[in-house]
Inverse folding.
């Protein structure tokens, strides 16, 4: 018997995830390149700003 209560089951996880769409796959041998230090800094600044900014009421 399962130790998880029946009312605590996430039904979205009841079935396996479908395979990715073929357009999501990379063709050829091109590999993603790493971000530069400036790009990483910019991303950190945007993340910091997003975390500090109050959320809009839904």
């Amino acid at each position: 018997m399962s130790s998880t209560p029946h009312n605590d089951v996430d039904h979205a996880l009841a079935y396996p995830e479908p395979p990715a769409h073929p357009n999501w796959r990379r063709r050829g041998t091109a590999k993603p390149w790493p971000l530069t230090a400036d790009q990483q800094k910019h991303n950190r600044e945007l993340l910091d700003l997003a975390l500090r900014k109050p959320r809009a009421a839904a």
